[in-house]
Every structure is written in structure tokens, then in C-alpha cells.
Amino acid sequence: MLHERNWFAFILLLRLVFSVIPLQVFPSLPADGNPKESSPFINSSMASDMEKSQQYDGKNMALFEDEMDTSPMVASLLSSLANYSNLPTGSKEHEEAPQLGTLMGVYLPCIQNIFGVILFLRMTWMVGIGGVLGSFIIVFMCCSTTMLTAISMSAIATNGVVPAGGSYYMISRSLGPEFGGAVGICFYLGTTFAGAMYILGCIEILLIYIVPQAAIFKMEGLEGPEAEAALLNNMRVYGSLVLGLMALVVFVGVKYVNKLALLFLACVIFSILAVYAGVIKTAIDPPVFPVCILGNRTLLTKAYDVCAKTVELDNDTVPSQLWRTFCDSDALNATCDEYFSNNNVTEIQGIPGVTSGILAENLFGYYLEKGVILEKRGLASVADEEGPSPTSNRYVMSDITSFFTLLVGIYFPSVTGIMAGSNRSGDLRDAQKSIPIGTIAAISTTSIVYMSSVILFGACIEGVVLRDKFGEGVNGNLVIGTLAWPSPWVIVIGSFFSTCGAGLQSLTGAPRLLQAISRDGIIPFLRVFGHGKANGEPTWALLLTAGICEIGIIIASLDAVAPILSMFFLMCYMFVNLACALQTLLRTPNWRPRFKFYHWALSFLGMTLCLSLMFICSWHYAIIAMGIATCIYKYIEFCGAEKEWGDGIRGISLSAARFALMRLEEGPPHTKNWRPQILVLVSVDAEQNVEQPRILSLTNQLKAGKGLTIVGTNVVGTFLNNYADAQRADQSLRRLMETERVKGFSQVVISSNLRDGTSHLVQVGGLGGLKHNTILVSWPQNWKHPDSHLRLKDFVEVVRETTIASLALLVPKNIASYPSNGERFTEGHIDVWWIVHDGGMLMLLPFLLRQHKVWRKCKMRIFTVAQMDDNSIQMKKDLITFLYHLRIDAAVEVVEMVSDVSAYTYEKTLVMEQRTLILKQMHLTKNEKERENSAPTGHMSHNTPGGGTASPDCEVQRTWTDKGGAKDQSQASAGKPEFNLRRMHTALRLNEVILKKSKEAKLVLLNMPGPPKNRMGDENYMEFLEVLTEGLNRVLLVRGGGREVITIYS
């Protein structure tokens, strides 16, 4: 029996395994190369219904059959995750591209990009100008910045799959599309300008050190600005040619770049090894690179043949070439330059060697102005009385003004290749593993080389040679090449190919970065650059990259381009550190990086270093770069596609919102901070569209207070049956809010009837201390019609609820006649009829309205009503003083009302009571019919509180007083004719006065009377309000919430 069970289990296991193997529930990535982050692993829509049903057949999982449309089997999930690919889909050629590991995919590309043009062309000059100590500080500071950035980047990279886009993907998914797009574009620009810098370095090596005769614009015989202009023009011409050639290589295919990369990288490594070998050789046998010094000034090699004023030739003293350079003839008694005559010529060794002790002389900086002659420290000389000669064909001179911050800006690009691996994350076999290991290892290697190079250069090379940027004092040799072994040409050729390789890497990475940004769709005008060849190569992005790179080529100066790209890289690194710090501090549940050697303090330190270096390098470039990033940020915010990536900024918003809500719970706001937090109650039709959209226009015009706005509506029905209707109503509200530019929230409740739904909205709107304090509801149209009886009751109940809850109430009447947001009143008045004090709402609302462009040019007038025993003149003076202290500009008028009751008032009251009685009888008849249709036969009687029975008529005739007792209708109405008469008199007289004074006003605001305590008087209450506002075009009835909302104090 046990044996049979084992076989049965074995067969069942085989069925399970073989049924799982052929399944492929999840697709790879979409065509844009980005995963579907809302459901990053599961997309069951791609599988057919047959495949879905097969997942559950024969697996003893019938209990979960209903979930098979949305939830796959665990075995299918694990199979799909194992086969997950982060490569964008394309042609077979692209899909079969080699998957690179840590060494080839990250470490070596980073090494190649970091060891670039600055190391070979400017490192020795930086040590000579800044000194060993200053240069070491610069190198240490820059390398520390990149190491801290790499640590933060490693944490982000190991927190999930990193598709194509590398650094941009990490920043955008951590800080959101606005920050991600802004920083991504800046990083793209930095990478593009880096390509220009590498190309310029390549041309500088070619034209100065390899084939100077290839110059199109000849520099021989030119001095000063003319020679400089000729050099720059040569750089532009040859740089454009090389750029076109490199772009063609990248266009042909990235696989050729990868093949050439090995050759270029070998050149870099051999060059660096040659430098170290040369350092070792200087301790044994220093190379011979003599430097000729006149006094203490360094002479150009082309200015002499031998380092002497005269030479002995056949026992005869003859002038040398140096003599002819400084004197007007070959005669020994010729007139010579004063400095030449007063100082001797000495020849010193340019490479004295590591054991020479030259390090002490090169320890401190030697900053120079442009055009200053390079002088050797410690040598005595007799200075010219009139200063040195302005000619530049004799001495080695400084070509730019140097200072510490300039050196930082020029050097920093030499450490900016740290993201060369992450930019190619789409080609990596395991990006989460390769990016941290490869990047940190590459930075460690290059940092050691840079720091040791600073010390070794200062210990081996003479100071005047270090400060000689183009090697003009050592026979035109590349200065670092003079130190290399076995020949300077090893460095020259190696650095040439190194710059070529780095340029190709930049032209390969930058278009892919732009393509990733474009395919995300966050910047609409860049979407065209997301397209490419059939194999996914970014053709259009490559063209744009080449065009931007040409701008750097036109600048033509390596020293001018370097600080530009430093800004963009530093900004990118700063936000990488910020992203890691935020994710760590917010402790989001999804923040689970495999890389554990990170800390938020290190990220903040790296961010601080980046920001400091930006302003150290060039404060004006830093401001421009930040301006560019800000413009891109605002463009994406207003015009870009909305993305939800679960970014850290959203987490900050949630934390800040929670903190703010907890603070609001501490107590009610002070009067000075009070602003209308409005709950707008709207009704929707059968199609779930808002019936009176103009009420949201008024909401927008009232929002100068910048408070909370909630637009709520009610859907009649049950949650299970009417949820889809509620969703449609919510979308309708959101669309209308967007159209009317109302910033706030929508809320839809489902209830069995209109009354309960409105009550729920009033009770539960808002969250914590951020709740509404004002209700905005439109006047019920056609309330006198029998079919609108429920709307009438609901409206009066809202008035009662706001009174109980101490909420302010705004009721616009004739809402359809209110202006839209596009209209403008060029003149007119906003009239306020201040009958009773409501906490200042009537004063505050016109002020808020006049902040909006619709009402801005309207004047404000305030009317108040004086009783028979009031002093009208004194009331006006007091009101003017009160408005002055409130800082409100308004005209003031006090109105006296006649107290006699006219015959028309009696007639109006009688008509109102008759209409109310008719409406009640019609409503009663309707209720009786409903009861007859719904009540069972033989059970028509109703139990009374006393235990007897009463007819429906008897029940309806009973009414509840405010004390909770029941009275007979005849008793409750005792004295009512006189009560209604007085109210009607007030409404008529007020209406007459308001029509007389404010008929032409653009808007009339007046106090709204309170609701009757007895619900049997609702129709009369509505009639009073109707009479009060009769004949007025736009009326806003205002009822205060029982607290002061405006104050005279500061």
C-alpha cells in the first residue's frame, strides 16, 4: 500500500513538472526596454485562456480556480523570474548580443573612461601648478566623491533589476520622473561633452606631439593670440573629422566598439606601466632631458641649438643660435637684450629622478597669470628694469591664468568615468552583481594610480618642466612621456589611442542614455529619439549626440570644456547620493539592497562634496547647470507624462503629509491662519456627469486662500452593484476639476438614498486635522415642483447639519449665471449685506474673490441695516473704522428699513401657506400609494407609542418638537400665522432694499437665515429665502461656522 502511494506521488510530481515546463506566462520586456513596473513580473494577459486553465488542471488546486485570471502558479512565477531578461527586445542580432560579465562589462570600461585625456595631458601640469600637496588634496577630494557616489550607486543598483539606462534609471526610479529626467538630461549632456573633450585631447596629441606638420593653419612664426587662434582652428577642423569618423563606427555597430575597446585599453595599461617603469629607472639611470635656463627663465627649445651664448669652434668663439635670438647681430659686440646680457645660461636636468630630492621643491603650488614666463625656483637672476620682453618666441610662457578652483574643474573629468559600466547595464549578464563590484574596484584602482602619480611626478620631474603644459622646454615632448620607459613614444601612442577609445565609449553610452529617457516618455519632444535601427541601436539619438558634441569641438579648448562637463557629472552624482540617502532614511519596504556597505551619512557626505565641488570648480557654470536642470524639471512637471515609479520623493511627500496631519491634530488653527477648506457638494445625472459644472468655477475663484478642496457626490445604490458607476462619477469629477483648474480631491460615496449619502460626505470628508470647514452647495432648482421634494429636504438637512457641526455654508443661487474662469469683469461691484455677525465670513469672501482675475476689477461695497433705535451715523463711522483695521478697502452704507407690515405681505404669507399645504398633501398622497403597494394585506395599521394603532394620516399629523415630545399638528401650528407674517415681512423689506441698492451689482453676498427647528416648516423656510433673493441675478448666501475667521491683529 505504501509502495502504491509512493508511485502515485511520483507520477503526480512528474505531471506537475511537465505541465509547468512549457508554460511561459510572462513576456520579456516591452519594446521600449523598460519593465512594466506596476506589475514587474506578472502579465497574465499574454497567455491564452487555454494555457491559464491548464495551469490548474490536475494539480489539486481547484480551490483557487477563480484566481487563475490574475494569479499564476508559484512554479510559473519562479520559472519566469529565472528567465527574466533586462535587454530591450529587438532583432535576433541584438538579442544574441554577448552578455558581459563584471570584468569586460564594468571594470575595464570604467578603467578606460577614467584613465583618459587628463591623466596624460594635464596631470603633470596640475602637479607643477598646484604643488604636490595641493594636487593631492584635489585628487583625494575628487576620488572620495566618486567612491562615495559608487557606494550609493551600488546600493541602488542592487535593490532591483537595472534595465537599459543605467544611472538615469536608478535616479528616476528613486527620485521620480521630474528629478530623473532633469538629472538624466544633465548626465547625458555631461557624457556628450566628455566625448568632445576626449576628441579634443586626441587632436591635441596628434597635432602637437605626433605630426605637427599636419596642421592646416600653420603656427610657425606666429606669436600670442595669433598662434592660439591657429591652434584652436586646427582643433576644430580635425576634431569635426574625427567626430564624424567615430560616429560612423558607432553607427555601424556597438560590437565593433567593444572589439576596439580591448586594443585601446591595452594601450592605456601599457602606458601607465611604462610610466611606473620610468619612475623606477630614474632611481638607477635618469633619462637625459636637458632644460635651458636663462637666469631663472625657461627657454623654448626652438630658440637655441646649444644651451650657451657662444660656442668654441676651431679655437674661435662664435655666437650661438641663442645669441642671434636675443641680439641684433652675430657680432660679439652686438646690442643684446638687457636680461640676456645680465644673466647666465644654465642647463638643468628635466628628469632628475626619484632620489634627487626635487619633491621638496615641488611640494607647494606655483600659480601663474596668463603670459607669465615660467621661472625656476631658487635660481638667482638680475631682473629687467623695464620688465620682460613681450615676445613669446624665446621663453616658455603660461597660456592661461591658473588658480586652485580652475585645477579642480580641469581635473575632475578624469574621475567621471565611474558610470561607464552602469550606462551599459542592458548588456550585462547580472547588473546587480557586476555594477557594484566592477565600479568600486575600478575606482580603487584608478585612485591609487592617481594619488601615486601625484607624488611620483613631484618626486621625479623638475618644477619648470611640470609647469610646461606642452613640453616646449623639453624639445616638444609630452611631459609625462619624458618620464616613460623605454621611450616617450609609448606614452604618446598609448594616450592617443586611449583618448580615441574613451571618445568611442562616450559616443556609445550617451545615445543609449538618451534613448532610455525618450522611451520613458517623460519629455514629450524627445520621443523621436527613442527610435532606432531594427536591432535597437539608437540612430536618432546618435545624430543628436554628435551634434551636441560638435558644440564642444567648436569651443576647441580642452581647459574650457572640462569644467562644463564637470558640472553635469557632479549634479548627477549629487542626486545619486541623495537618492540613496532618502531611500535609507525613509525605510520604504521595497528598499532591500543586496549591497550592505552603505549608510545614509556616507551618502549625505558624498552629496555635500558634489555640491561643494560644483561651486569650487566654477560658480557661474554651477548656476547655469542648475538652471538647466530646473527648467527641465518644471517642463516635465507641467508638460511631461505622469509616471508612478514608487520614487523616494513620493515617500517624502507621504512622510511630510503624515507629519503635517499630526501637527494639525494639536488644535484648531488660529484666526490668522483660517482659510476656507471647502467641501463642494455636487449632483450627477444618469450618465454620472456633473449637473452644474459652474459651481467648480466659483470654487476656483474662491481658492485664493489656497486651502483644501474636496468635491463630493453621491451615487444611489449599493456598493456591490454600483461600484462601476461610482468610478465613472469619480473620473467625471476629476476631469471637471482639471478643466476648471481646481486643485483638490474628489470623493464619491454610494448610499441607499440621497440624504444619507450627503450626510456621509459632510461627516467623513477630509483626514485628521485636514478637514473641511466650509460647505459649498448650490441652490436647489425647481424646489417647488413635487418631484424635487427630496432635493428640498436634503438641502435643508444640509443647512441643519452644518449648523450642528459648526461649519460655514455657502449657497450660490442662479449658479448658471456665475462667470466662468475665462470671463473678466472690467467694472462693477461686489455688494455685501451684513445683517448679523457671522465671524467675518462676509468680509473675507469678497477679499478672496477679488484676488482672482475674474473679480479683480470689481469694487467692494458693504451695507448694513439699522434698526429704529440705532444711530445710523455712528454705525457708519464704526464700520469704517472696523474695515480700516481689517485692511479691507470698501465703501460703506447704512440702510434703514420700514417696520410697517403692508397688505402685500399678508397676501404673500397666505399664498405661501396655501402652497405649503398643497405640497404636503401631494407628498402625503404619494406616500400613501407607496405604502399601499408595499404593505401586506391585513397589516395596514401601525402601532402607536401608546400601544394602540393609528392611521397613516394620524401618524403624519404628529410632529416632533425640539424637546423630543410629540404634539398634535393643530397645537404645533398655534401662533404660526403671526410668526410666518413677521418673517415674510423681513424678507420682503430686505429684498426691496437690496434690489434698490444692489440690482446692478455683479454679486450680492448676504447672511443666510438659520433653518427651522421644526421640520414641518421646511417649505416655508425655502419660501422665505426665495422672497429674500427674488429679482437678484447672482446671490451668494453665507452662513458662518460660529467662529471668528478674520482679525484686526497682525
Automatic annotation (TrEMBL):
Its main location: membrane. It is a multi-pass membrane protein. Residues 106-279, 396-679 form the Amino acid permease/ SLC12A domain. This is Solute carrier family 12 member 5b. Keywords: Cell membrane, Chloride, Glycoprotein, Ion transport, Membrane, Phosphoprotein, Potassium, Potassium transport, Symport, Transmembrane, Transmembrane helix, Transport. GO terms for cellular component: plasma membrane; synapse. Residues 927-956 are annotated as: Disordered. The keyword Repressor does not apply. It holds the Pfam family SLC12. It catalyses: K(+)(in) + chloride(in) = K(+)(out) + chloride(out). InterPro entries: AA-permease/SLC12A_dom, KCL_cotranspt, SLC12_C, SLC12A_fam. It comes from the Eukaryota. Residues 934-944 have a biased composition (Polar residues). Residues 693-808, 825-1050 form the SLC12A transporter C-terminal domain. Belongs to the SLC12A transporter family. K/Cl co-transporter subfamily. The chain crosses the membrane at residues 7-26, 100-121, 133-156, 168-189, 196-217, 237-254, 261-280, 400-420, 440-466, 486-504, 540-558, 564-585, 597-622. The keyword Plastid does not apply. It is found in: Cell membrane. One of its GO terms (biological process) is potassium ion import across plasma membrane. Coiled coil: none annotated. GO terms for molecular function: potassium:chloride symporter activity.
